[in-house]
Amino acid sequence: MLREKESFEMKHVKSLSTMTATIAGLVLAGTTAAFFAPGADNGWDASTAMTETSPGVWEYSASGLGAGARTEWNIIEFAGDWGSQLHGSNQWGHADGNGDVTIILDTNTYNDGWAPSSNRIYTNTLALQSWAATGDWVAAAGLGNDWDLGTAPAMTNNGGIFEFVIPGGSLAPGIYEWKPVANGSWDSTGPFTGVNVNAPNSQFEVVGSETIIVQLDSSNGTTRFIPTPGAVGLLGIAGLAAARRRRR
User: Fold this and answer.
1) What 8-state DSSP symbol labels residue 160?
2) What is the pLDDT of residue 228?
3) How many domains does the structure of the chain reveal?
């Protein structure tokens, strides 16, 4: 059996309304405050407000960028207050072919086995990126060098779910770290940060000769792993979040 371990904390948890609703594994949480998205496209204006497009979901759109252009933001909870950042490092994104990109913060809580389970941060163009999986298991699996962007195995796009299969029996039992990386850079998505520059690592544990499938859902920036075969079936990685970041 594979085990999952928790090692993460939520920062700047939003105030919730007194009413919540649970619908198909989703806990809707009405927030009483706004969020702001200072970034490169708006001159890092810390009063740039995000719009709540549905309960608990906040968005900010940038336009007029070059096709495929990369940009960054740093979502904050209070206008003008850089101390209220949701995460220490910046969020990243790439414009589409028209020069447009939207960054989304979903503060609802989901019980779907994908991480993060709440405060999901992502852009609407993640599926347009080239994704690879790297970590401290690559060399042991005979697939390249550990934490090496140049040899990181490419992930396959299966209908917006990017995945890489680590062959069964290629890794000795133990706990391993991994992360999905975009476009040959350290732009990544983490188990409690969502899209983040050099996001924290995720973990999986091998206990026998099972195959491990690591996955990224490009529709919301979440990750998980699937151990196969085994009676445990599908296990999300919501709890397998490494607090430390990979240092370059």
Assistant:
1) T
2) 86
3) 2
